[in-house]
Design brief:
Rossmann fold, 20 strands, Archaeosine Trna-guanine Transglycosylase, Chain: A, domain 4, alpha/beta
């Protein structure tokens, strides 16, 4: 199968030879006529050497490469890609567990499929395409999922209306095949209800799984504040591991309702739980100084380089306030999922917050995303989640 050709300027092939998945618009020398947004194209160097096949888009990122070898992008291609991604999760002992039945199957560029996210929820695969080129392969992707999972898969749900550019967005999310038999999953034995239809992302923040477990290990006998709590993942594990009291705070009533449901699903703990609908930034200024453990897991404050400075200032203010309020000997878990705020900048921002709060702080752990959200060593942009665990004197 042949695809329309696109040629790069001299020297602009270096990043693709190093297996980076993006071709920026400034690298273009010429392209064949008639190429439309979302089309598959073959990318060549200025010397007419083949470099890769990818989806064309009108924007800063002009092509997202899905194959560095010449091949047909057909149903067999998608099945092979999904099978390879599944093999990684199988190696992580995630695919057959009873204690954990939720994980990320495809993580974009990390699995060689830029713009594609697939999360697995106890028999249901939830798909999010981030550009129209990827979304056009929805049926082949679904058939690949069915081929890999067999009877284990009950339904495939497309939740791309929120992630596609507005001009290309599908009218609504929908079941592509089958239907879910349950909206309940387990993570390290704790139960959670997942709302993939109306919830954030694909329904759950899977990338905090190992960090939730770490929070739990520090929670016994502690009073815990979980801010930006969403569905209460940190709260549930803290209570299960013996926290005496947990306060869950989120600005969204829907998030608080989901937190309450998830806490109720995991009855048997002795600690107290309180849910609060509030703006976290304002709320944290008014709390007392009796929390032993505070979790700061805000949404991305910066989604572009232009917003980075303001985001850094927001992280600094939020963390400084939490550091001022936490009990001596307290533990602060603080996170950033802003891709444009790297690990060093985040650490420097927290250091500035510590100086402003006039508290002595030690770093106990440096955190990242879990292994089912792997980092592509050829595509550093796939590393986005970073966190610090601080001991505050």
């Amino acid at each position: 199968m042949t695809y329309p050709k696109l040629f790069l300027q001299k020297g602009k092939e270096v990043s693709l030879l190093r297996k980076h998945h993006w071709v920026f618009s400034g690298a273009l020398a010429k392209k064949e006529e008639g190429i439309q947004n979302g089309d598959l194209v073959a990318v060549y160097s200025s010397k007419n050497d083949f470099l890769g096949i990818g989806h064309y888009a009108m924007g800063s990122i002009m092509v997202r490469i899905i194959s560095f070898v010449e091949q047909a992008i057909d149903a067999a291609f998608w099945t092979a890609k999904i099978r390879a991604a599944h093999a990684v999760r199988e190696a992580l002992n995630l695919t057959q567990q009873k204690e954990t039945t939720v994980y990320r199957l495809v993580h974009g560029e990390s699995d060689g499929l830029p713009g594609l996210i697939i999360d697995y929820y106890n028999g249901t695969a939830v798909i999010q395409a981030h550009h129209i080129g990827m979304h056009q392969h929805l049926l082949d992707i679904t058939e690949g999922l069915r081929a890999v999972y067999g009877k284990q898969l009950k339904g495939v749900y497309d939740k791309s209306s929120e992630t596609l550019p507005k001009a290309e967005a599908v009218p609504s999310n929908e079941w592509v095949w089958g239907k879910s038999e349950t909206d309940l999953v387990k993570e390290y034995g704790a139960s959670y209800k997942i709302d993939w239809e109306k919830g954030q992302k694909t329904g759950f923040f899977i990338d905090q799984r190992e960090n939730r477990k770490l929070v739990a290990s520090y929670s016994k006998g502690k009073k815990v504040l979980n801010t930006f709590c969403y569905s209460g993942g940190f709260s549930v594990l803290a209570l299960q591991e013996g926290a005496t009291e947990v306060h869950s705070v989120d600005i969204s009533q829907k998030a608080i309702d989901l937190t309450e449901e998830n806490v109720a699903l995991n009855a048997g703990f002795k600690g107290k739980h309180q849910s609060i609908v509030a703006d976290v930034v304002k709320y944290i200024r008014e709390i007392g100084d009796d929390f032993d453990l505070i979790i700061l897991d805000p949404p991305a404050f910066a989604k572009s380089l232009k917003a980075r400075h303001n985001a850094v200032q927001a992280y600094k203010r939020l963390n400084a306030e939490a550091l001022r309020k936490i009990k001596p000997g307290g533990i602060l878990f603080t996170f950033s999922c802003s891709q444009v705020v790297d690990k060093r900048l985040f650490a420097n921002t927290i250091t500035a917050a510590a100086l402003e709060s006039k508290r002595n702080v030690r770093i106990l752990h440096q955190l990242s995303q879990p292994a089912d959200h792997p980092i592509n060593c050829f595509h550093p942009e796939t590393e986005y989640l970073k966190g610090l665990v601080l001991y505050v004197d």
